[in-house]
Amino acid sequence: MMKRQDNKRNKPVFKNNVPNDQFKFLPLPAPTGKYPYHLSLAALQPDNSTEKMVFHMVGDTGSAKQPEFQGLVAAEMISHFNTRAPEDQPLFLYHLGDVVYHFGEAEEYYRQFFEPYKNYPRPIFAIAGNHDSDVNPHARVTYKSLDAFVHVFCDTESRPTKLSQNTSRKTMVQPNIYWTLETPLATIIGLYSNVPKFGAVHQEQKDWFINELKSFGTSGENKALIVCIHHAPFSADTNHGASRPMIEFLEDSYKQANVRPDIIFSGHVHNYQRFSKTYPNGKTIPYIVAGAGGYATLFPIAAIDEPGFTDADPLLENVHLDKFCDFKHGFLKISLEKAAEGLMLTGEYFTIPHTIKNGEKIPVKLYDRFTLNINK
Questions:
Q1: Residue 362 — very low, low, confident or very high, per pLDDT cuts 50/70/90?
Q2: Distance linking the first and last C-alpha atoms of the chain
Q3: Rounded CA gap, 310 and 304, in Å?
Q4: What is the average pLDDT value for the chain, to the nearest integer?
Q5: What distances in angstroms separate CA 221 from CA 185, 212, 225, one per listed residue?
Q6: Whole-model pTM?
């Protein structure tokens, strides 16, 4: 394993000579719920412990041509639930975007979402990715950006949908494309970063996000503040690299609110990366990329001497790549638990084997584990 990492970058990178594709920004659909777009986990899972909470996270699961990896990841998350003690069973799956490739079309939702997750026993929440949001210019039936995503995840009530065909999963009731999930141990803010390759967030959503940060900062609650956004702010991969628009958006929002989250999760980049950013006040915040949830092609980490990339930029200072996996698919299990020393967040990243030995599937591997002590 060390040989794979010896010549790899240990910082995020910007790609050189990146074209500006902000013209791809598409209008957002209308909210389906009331401002400020909060959803309580208790509305769907009434018997939640106030001492411990476990949930899954995964991104970029859709796969238009090679669905086998998505099936493996989904099966292992289901196995996680079925083989764990009740207190260690995930309460939900939080999807980090790109549920359906390549254009978020309704007719693809069964094959790329409902069928693979038909046996997942808990609710599935989601933020939309760029592929969920894009529109196929050659579609036989005209549709608007996020029509199918809103139908599946942002319904006004949970009910059966024809898109699920023979499965029992119903629609979800997220109140908007950007929204906040309230749980006993965490406030999870889900942002929407639109279609452009490096993301785009306009002022209305930014104002909402700043208000969400401020509200959390003044609440006095000893909970984790988690931010999820599809486009990864920091990345060292060769396909995307880091996102200047997302870094600037997040950092300016933190500054205006005078509040920073405890951890940030993203997808978009098809691999696993765990960064740590140290701020002037000494606080270190993890930035996690978990976009290897099923799309067949995985993106490698840039080599130190690889041309076309730079890590010499003020926006990338004090950011370190602590761990990565760019050659296997996988998923995250997040645990929040109250302890004597404070609220503890533990993240575990499991990788899916791509080989079969002696006719038997090799078990999943715990590839990375990190802990975060959250004291407000």
A1: low
A2: 37
A3: 10
A4: 94
A5: 9, 14, 10
A6: 0.96
